[in-house]
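#onboarding

Welcome to the new folks! Below is a worked example of what a typical request in this channel looks like: someone posts a single protein sequence, and someone else replies with the predicted structure as tokens. Don't worry about understanding the tokens yet, we'll cover that in week two.

Example request:
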Amino acid sequence: MSWKNELPDELWRKILETGIKASNFTYKDLCCVSICCRRLHRLSNEDSLWSHLLSVDFPNQISPPPSSSSSSKSLYRISFEKERERKLLNHKRAVLRKESQVSEHLRKLREFEVRLRDERRKLKSAVSELSNLHKVSQASVALNVWQPEVVRGRQRQMVEQCVVPVESRIRALEMEVKLCNQQLQVFDKAYRDEKRRLDAAKEELKSLMYHPLQDYKPTSNESHENRKKRKKLKTCIDTPDKQGAWLLE
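Example response:
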């Protein structure tokens, strides 16, 4: 005779009740026990066990009255499916929100790239003009020194082509180059920060896609005790298919 058959039903019932009430048994554990043998299948389907699981995992679910034809297990299965659908919808909303954040980060990165490109172009133009003005300044100084007539004429032409005073323009361009360098540093830092935020958002999106049935509903209004109780059901469901649902049949 098997040792399972040597134990009376009352003792097996007490073992299952103790396991569930001690918060060690989940619905999966109870379903796994039920497929061991006919006797455990019969005992694990008792209404008192599923009624306790129903009150723990779904505290807002009203237990069926004694005269009701619906068993606690069937109500648990219905509540389980509703909870799974709710988590799937929350997951879709969370994915859409995260994809929107990723798109926004990409848009900002493109804006910073355009600003950096424009600022570099402006800096290059200012540096080029500053270099030419330095040549003009050197040419104006050379006019006061004896030079061959051909060279002196070319230098005089360069000075005369300058509309504004050379020194004033040089100071303005030096200031513009300094400001361009500062702007490049600011835009570069903002670009790197936005890139880090984009990478973090992509990682979060990847995590969302990998765990589709996590509970993404804000829980600020929920008590700590209810969150702790419902955590058991949340952690034992990993995929959006019918995993776990067949055990409740």
